[in-house]
Amino acid sequence: MKQKRTSRRPVRQDTNREGMVRKLHVGRKQLGLEDADYRALLQRVTGKTSSTQCSEGELDLILKEMKRVGFKTSRPSGKPWVRKVYALWDEMGPLLRTGGTREALRAYVLRMTKVSAPEFLDEPKARHVIEGLKAWKKRLEDSQ
Fold first, then answer.
1. Residues 114, 119, 122, 123: what is their CA dihedral angle, to the nearest 10 degrees?
2. C-alpha–C-alpha distance, residues 94 and 117, integer Å
3. 9-45: per-residue pLDDT in tens?
4. Are 80 and 74 in contact (CB under 8 A)?
């Protein structure tokens, strides 16, 4: 008699993997790698030409190699209001013409507060920016 398999192991969803791939693309941009150079780096380190084909371990090896050749990662800000500004901006990105670039955010913050970047905001000015972003996001969502 053939026994039926009743349970399967759930497929693991790696949110860490997505973050690692994002870091790879940030590193690629920071190092100024053209597509061919980036793919050559992937090929040299993992034997694969696309980050989507790589395991988490291979992605880690690629990140270590990028750091060895000069990629510098930055730590998230310790200020919760700065993280909130970036979180709102990232949510709005798909709705914006610019796609939500960091340069566009800096320009918005400069217009709103006369401060050059979100990292330099104090809490009251950050609250002003956050409320402005919330209102802008609502208008964008309502127009769709």
1. 120
2. 21
3. 444 444 578 888 888 988 898 899 999 999 999 999 9
4. no
